[in-house]
Design a protein that fits this description.
The protein is of the alpha/beta class. It has 2 domains: 164 residues, P-loop containing nucleotide triphosphate hydrolases (Rossmann fold, 3-Layer(aba) Sandwich), CATH 3.40.50.300; 99 residues. Helices cover 44% and strands 13% of the residues. The protein contains 14 helices and 9 strands. It has a 5-stranded parallel sheet, with helices on both faces. It has a two-stranded antiparallel sheet with strand order 3-4. Strands 6-7 form a two-stranded antiparallel ribbon. β6 and β7 form a beta hairpin. α10 runs parallel beside α12 and α13 packs antiparallel against α14. It is elongated, with a radius of gyration of 24 Å. The N and C termini lie far apart (54 Å).
């Protein structure tokens, strides 16, 4: 770590393991992007927000879609506006620079202070997208041929890249990253996370909700396992709904907060029927 930059140890709203904080600090020290993988709901995106908060930096988010091209992260040349101005406007269209708009990566390079750059869900883009960014992420600069200028980072941003592992990333890209997989929280870690969001939660309610939550996650063939954020929302629903702890396992209240697919409701129904639990089966029928 740089002597002027304090080590990342998590933030007030984000519980971080020693392994994850070490990965963040190593990536910062080695000046390499940190590639984060993990199932949805394990806090990949929130990690970048936590780093920015902890280190008092601005956060720039580049949300990747299936149609996103690497060029968009560098800059965009608004040829349409320039053509319009040449035909109907009074401005000087010879100044091409005013039609150049920096993308999210370009913004992070141009920032006067070091920032955190989140490249979110990089695996959504096409296979060439990561390789198209190799030079820029290595050199922290890029060339704009329209204006014949090179944009070089004033301060190397802290680059956090998330992936849901929807597709494999190129080996050449992986070699340039520090990698960390965020495992789903065990019950003890989950309690620590919940305490941040629900510090005054009744103990018995928490225990019953946690037991039911992990039971649902452990059912075979569930396609979309409920995540941490959904558990936090479910606990809030239980509190607002005035649900007593004794009713949680018996009635499975507000199940739609946890399970979001009809197929998963079918799997749960079969599980309950297999155990001969007619009461829970009837309860589940209300969500169909």
């Amino acid at each position: 770590m740089s002597a002027s930059l304090k080590a990342y140890q998590g933030s007030s709203g984000y519980i971080v393991s020693d392994e994850l904080s070490n990965s963040v600090n190593i990536a910062i020290s080695l000046k390499k992007p940190l590639l984060i993988k993990g199932e949805p709901g394990t806090g990949k995106t929130m990690l970048a927000q936590s780093i920015a908060e902890s280190l008092a930096m601005d956060l720039i988010i580049w949300n990747i879609k299936s149609t996103t091209k690497a060029q968009e992260g560098l800059y965009l040349y608004d040829t349409v506006q320039r053509l319009y101005d040449s035909q109907f406007g009074e401005s000087d269209v010879s100044n091409i620079k005013k039609y150049i708009k920096l993308g999210k990566l370009g913004e992070s390079f141009g920032a006067s202070k070091q920032v955190v750059l989140l490249i979110d869900e990089i695996d959504k883009a096409d296979l060439e997208f990561p390789n198209d960014l190799l030079w820029e992420l290595d050199q922290m600069s890029f060339y704009i041929p329209e204006t014949k200028e090179t944009i070089t980072a004033n301060q190397r941003p802290i680059v956090i890249i998330t992936s849901n592992a929807e597709k494999e990333l190129p080996d050449a890209f992986l070699r340039r990253c520090i990698f960390h997989y965020i495992a789903f929280p065990d019950p003890d870690t989950m309690e620590s996370i919940i305490s941040v969001h629900h510090p005054k939660l009744e103990r018995k309610l928490l225990e019953q909700a946690m037991e039911t939550f992990y039971m649902l996650r452990n059912i075979p063939d569930i396609q979309k396992k409920p995540s941490t954020s959904e558990l936090i929302d479910w606990l809030q629903a239980l509190v607002v709904g005035g649900i007593s702890p004794s009713k949680i396992k018996k009635e499975l209240p507000f199940l739609g907060v946890l399970l979001k697919k009809n197929e998963d409701l079918d799997v749960l129904l079969n599980q309950l029927q297999g155990k001969g639990n007619a009461r829970n089966s009837n309860v589940l029928g209300r969500f169909r």
